[in-house]
């Protein structure tokens, strides 16, 4: 069964450093997402991406965050200058359509900012 | 307010049916209701989704209230592997899926 893959599975970074989280969505999907989950809390939407541009973003997704699809397969989330409160599990997801279609999630990248 | 509400936790005996409720009174007429589950240290796993009619798949059934303000995920015969946090989610008129706080399901052997 096709799956969303994410790297790294775990990253520890110092506060103020830049971090790039990588994702390979399911190959025929057109919509891509990043969600995050702070330890013990619910899954929160960050951003959606379609047709090479951001289609929706949350208030969490401020100027420190950016997303990119640098080639036909990868989808990345960059945090420019990490803060302690950015420590969380970051999930990439993809779907073939919006709304009524299933969103498939990756296993997540656990980011620890120290 | 665009959100789903679920009980924090539920318990069920192994091999018995489980009914997990969710309220989503503010969804729009075109919003699908989605259910995901999450095992520790894993990503959310799709379980089922539906719009108006009740839905069945190999994992579960979804019963949607006639007014669509609530739904119930039904696991017909719970096993120990079904222990997880179950999330109800909906689009609420947007592209994003808004997740609830989830129900932690414990299965008692």
**What's the rounded overall pLDDT mean of chain B?**
92
Intertermini distance of chain B: 39 Å
Oligomer: heterodimer
Structural Rg of chain B: 13 Å
How many helices of chain B? The count is: 0
Query: What percent strand of chain A?
Result: over 45%
Low-confidence stretches of chain B: none
Q: In this structure, how is the largest beta sheet of chain B organized?
A: 6 strands, mixed
* Sheet of most strands of chain A: 7 strands, mixed
Order of helices and strands of chain A: EEEEEEEEEEE
> What share of the residues of chain B does DSSP label as strand, in percent?
over 45%
Mean pLDDT of chain A: 93
Low-confidence stretches of chain A: none
Structural class computed from helices and strand pairing of chain A: mainly beta
Report on the structure:
The complex is a heterodimer of chains A (114) and B (109). Chain A has strands spanning 5-7, 10-13, 19-24, 31-37, 44-50, 53-57, 65-68, 75-79, 88-95, 104-105, 109-113. Chain A is mostly beta strands. In chain A, strands 2, 4, 5, 6, 9, 10 and 11 form a 7-stranded mixed beta sheet that branches. In chain A, strands 1-3-8-7 form a 4-stranded antiparallel beta sheet, with no helix packed on it. In chain A, strand 5 and strand 6 form a beta hairpin. Chain A is globular, with a radius of gyration of 13 Å. Chain B has 109 residues and is an all-beta fold. Chain B has strands at 9-13, 18-23, 33-38, 45-50, 55-56, 61-64, 70-75, 84-90, 98-99, 103-108. In chain B, the strands form 2 sheets. In chain B, strands 1, 3, 4, 8, 9 and 10 form a 6-stranded mixed beta sheet that branches. A 4-stranded antiparallel beta sheet of chain B has the order 2-7-6-5, with no helix packed on it. In chain B, strand 6 and strand 7 (70-75) form a beta hairpin.
């Amino acid at each position: 069964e096709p799956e969303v893959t994410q790297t790294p599975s775990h990253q520890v970074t110092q506060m103020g450093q830049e971090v790039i989280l990588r994702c390979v969505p399911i190959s025929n999907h057109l919509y891509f997402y990043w969600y995050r989950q702070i330890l013990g809390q619910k899954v929160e939407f960050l951003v959606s991406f379609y047709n090479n541009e951001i289609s929706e973003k949350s208030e969490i997704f401020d100027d420190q965050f950016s997303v990119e699809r640098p080639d036909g397969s990868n989808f990345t989330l960059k945090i420019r200058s990490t803060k302690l409160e950015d420590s969380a599990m970051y999930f990439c997801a993809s779907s073939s359509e919006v709304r009524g279609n299933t969103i498939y999630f990756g296993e997540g990248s656990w980011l620890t900012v120290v | 307010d665009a959100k789903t509400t679920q009980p924090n936790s539920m318990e069920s005996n192994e091999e018995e049916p489980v009914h997990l409720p969710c309220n989503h009174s503010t969804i729009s007429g075109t919003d699908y209701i989605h259910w995901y589950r999450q095992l520790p240290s894993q990503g959310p796993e799709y379980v089922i989704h539906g719009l108006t009619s009740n839905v069945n798949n190999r994992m579960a059934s979804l019963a949607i209230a006639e007014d669509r303000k609530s739904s119930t995920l039904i696991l017909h015969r719970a096993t120990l592997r079904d222990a997880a946090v179950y999330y109800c989610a909906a689009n609420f008129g947007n592209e994003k899926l808004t997740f609830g706080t989830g129900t932690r399901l414990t299965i008692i052997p």
